[in-house]
Amino acid sequence: MEKEQISLAKTGDLARIERLFQDCKEALQQKGIYQWDDEYPNKEYFAHTINEKEMFILHNESEILGAMVLNEWEIAEWDAVDWSNKNGNYLVLHSFCTHPTVQGKGLGGIMLQFAEKMAKEQGYDGIRLDAYSGNKGSLGFYEKRGYNKTGEVFFSSKPAEHGTYFCYEKLF
Q1: How far apart are CA 94 and CA 89, in angstroms?
Q2: Which residues touch 160 (CB under 8 Å, ≥6 apart)?
Q3: What is the Cα Rg of the chain in Å?
Q4: CA 102, CA 7: separation in Å to the nearest integer?
Q5: Does position 164 have pLDDT exceeding 60, yes or no?
Q6: Is the pTM of this model over 0.90?
Q7: For 5-171, which CATH superfamily applies?
């Protein structure tokens, strides 16, 4: 396998990022996990996060293997969550995925380590995220790496049976 690296996504990566997320969405749906739909994440979201320099990709010379968005945007639903510190400065992880063909090979861990290192270097108090409650693999992934569940939120924009997400944080 070619050596992977993580870098900011560029506009020229947009079509490959769309394909990555489509492949991930289809693989999740085959497992009965309906966390992503046509509304989120979508092409406009990808283009916006690339333009804002928030989309990071894990790639080798020939393909994009994973992606994540890192910014400070905390959604309104998080206001009711019992975070450890309401006043801290947190990096927020969104839209985290690795291609289904490389899952279980440690690449997600490499991406999360990158995010944590970046957060520490930039003086953040920790990382926050939410994860779909029906994606047991994702929940275990974060918990195994020291992320603590702090609460849950419900997204009314999702079908009722797929709207609950667990909130996690890791403090430094």
Answers
A1: 16
A2: none
A3: 15
A4: 18
A5: yes
A6: yes
A7: Gcn5-related N-acetyltransferase (GNAT) (3.40.630.30)
pLDDT of residue 57: 99
Return the amino acid letter for 63. Answer: E
For 143, residues 6+ apart whose C-beta sits below 8 A from its C-beta are 149, 168
Quick: pLDDT tens for 66-95: 999 999 999 989 999 999 988 899 999 999
Task: Please write the tens of the pLDDT for every residue from 41-56.
Answer: 999 999 999 999 999 9
User: Edge-to-edge strand order for the sheet containing 55-59?
Assistant: 5-8, 55-59, 64-71, 90-98, 126-132, 164-171, 148-154
CA 73 – CA 92 distance, rounded (Å): 6
How much is the pLDDT for 38? 81
